[in-house]
Amino acid sequence: MIGYVRVCTMALVGAWTAACSGEGDIADTDFTEQFALGDTLPGTDPAHFAEARDAFAASENAADGLGPIFNERGCGTCHQNGALGGAGQQVEARFGRLVNGTFDTMASVGGSLRQLFGIGGFNVGGLNCNSGTDANPPAGATIFAGRLTTPLFGLGLVDSLPDSAFDTLASRQPAAIRGIVNRVTTVLPNTLDPEQATGRTRVGRFGWKAGVPNLGQFSADAYLNEMGITTTSCINGQVNSAFALETRANRANTNAIINGCPDDQVPGIDDSLAAETANCTQNEDGEPEAVHELQDDVAFFTFFMAHLAPPPRTAISPGSAADRGRTLFNSASLACSGCHRSDADVFRSRSNGGVPAGIVFAPFSDFLLHDMGTLGDGIGNQGESVAATRRMRTAPLWGLRSRNRLLHDGRTTDRATAILAHNGGANGQGTASANAFNALTSAQKQDLLAFLNTL
Q: Distance between CA atoms of 278 and 175, rounded to whole angstroms?
């Protein structure tokens, strides 16, 4: 298995310098790196990565603040296919309803994400408490959808890209399939990226709806919503409490004491960096400092994800089925590459976020939102239109052969079936490509699938 990337020449000889991190300062060199799935980016500190990997793989329990309701006990429990950090078998449950033609997340009863498990009974201060579980289905919900765990390989490179990269990708697409650049508000900035700040907008690039702007926010959000572990971080000396409220069974987020019982076995905030740093005003030695750090576990998860190398690809022999399939993939008639993009001049990492600059990579995605018609999951943000709920982020195809379940809800393991599902009807921006695939000969279809199996 061979992973193809291009990296600033000095990084290859271990002499990474400030000069190398300046984009365009040093010529790129094409080379082949013998990556294995789950390897790290060049120049990653092995000791730091090992510590971060252990945190990512750890299983949490009630004494750690797990719950009161949750979907899994650890990051690695979901992200496991092929290697730690891969896609998963788990399909999380989403729900909602339409009210006066717009989407209602039903936040007052815990929506739109339904947690599947609860920690059950626990004792705090002599009180016998119970977490309960989310109702299935929640009363009043009429829209239900599944979301498959996505792989994390290479996402630090995506995180490093400037917003303008996604604008460029959108500008290169024909109007019929042009995606939407989804700018969202950053609620937890990456402390290693000086361009990010709390409340500032950034292009959302992660999650099935492209609603998450960076890997730090992705980590804290998953820690809370998938495991029920609350955190505070410190951003420029200010307490960031965006992920500090517990999720109770079929209730809006709160840390309130209800019937004498706290949320879970660890009352209040589970992991509070603010509490450890005098509200973000003192360093670990007790000296005055405007602390600028993510909470420890969130920082570990972020480092682990940011430094995973892109998935390996297999070499394609000239004239082979995969070679013919690559031609079909890039053809104007199928237009697969219109959304599943690999523009080498755009996908080039910067040092923002702590990863090496100058790595050219091919994720086979535009990370934009597209109207998928009936293939869309019907889930949106509060008050969004029905059309908005049909929009889905283009799924990156790198690492495809290490995955078995496909599409946003994992409904199929068959690649041809997944392609045909892109026929979302009159509103679907993938309909023309699905129909073009359906019109191919059997041999041509096999050629295209052979190419996809090299990714």
A: 53
| Burial environment of residue 23 by CB neighbours within 10 A (0 to 12, 13 to 18, 19 or more) | middle
Mean pLDDT of 287-313: 97
Q: Is 276 helix (H, G, I), strand (E, B) or coil?
A: helix
Strand ranges, E, within 214-255: 231-235, 238-240
> 61 Cβ partners below 8 Å, 6+ apart?
73
Distance between CA atoms of residues 81 and 84, nearest Å: 7
pLDDT (tens digit, 9 = 90+) per residue, 49-88?
999 999 999 999 999 999 999 999 999 999 999 999 999 9
Taking all residues of the chain, what is their mean pLDDT, rounded to a whole number?
92
Type and span of the H or E element at 75: helix 75-78
pLDDT of residue 21: 33
DSSP string covering 160-178: TS-HHHHHHHHHTS-TTTP
28 class by beta-carbon count within 10 Å (0-12 exposed, 13-18 middle, 19+ buried):
middle
